[in-house]
Design brief:
Layout lengths: L1 H25 L12 H4 L4 H7 L7 H12 L1 H12 L5 H4 L7 H8 L15 H16 L4 E5 L7 H4 L13 E5 L2 H16 L5 E4 L4 E5 L7 E2 L5
Parallel strand pairs: 3-5
Antiparallel strand pairs: 1-2, 2-4, 3-4
Amino acid sequence: MQPRISRILGLTAFLLMSAFSVAQAHEGFEYDEHSPWALDDLELIPSDERLEAFACTRASSQQIAPILEGNRKKDAFLRYCSGVTGGSAWCNQLIRPNPSSMSSFRCTYGPDQVHQLIHPDENTWAYAAQAVRLVERLEGLGVRVCQIYNWWRPEPYNKNVGGAAGRHPYGTSVDVRFCSMADMEKAFSNLCQWRKKGELRALGYYGSTALHFGIGDRTPNTWGKACN
């Protein structure tokens, strides 16, 4: 009974927050179809219960093929990222999916699939590296960063965690989790200024300690909170 109650409460919170995000859109915020309340980012519902709340789509052999191709390029990507970021340790986190969505990853690709994702298209690697550069600049300003995740999140894994189709599946963006709300707010303020200079195209405010860095996102906007 307890898991059922927890699942209902989680779904209720998800629906309420979705309604809040729509209200924000009507108040003049730039809004995006990428819901700031995607389960993968908000983590309201415990990972073991998400698969019960939402149907899990299993990846086909065609969908797994590019993942295997990307994994074969792991060392090449890490060399590239290290070379253009001055050897940043954050490069290693770029290839690892969100640890909080492990159950969704296993459901999508099976228990034997290595828990890593490297976009096979090398043209996307610059987006990931630019996110690392921005993270290191924020750290230079005293902002504490705890985690980088969600660089490439292909379908159907993206769908299984509640993500929108327009951004992470193309490898153009990265999510970054900060160590406190104060760190996140300071990062958001700086990223708003850097976005005006063209250093990233989109910026998502999740209302938690995480932000969406839309380095090369097709839609150049903000959502969740307006930049001043």
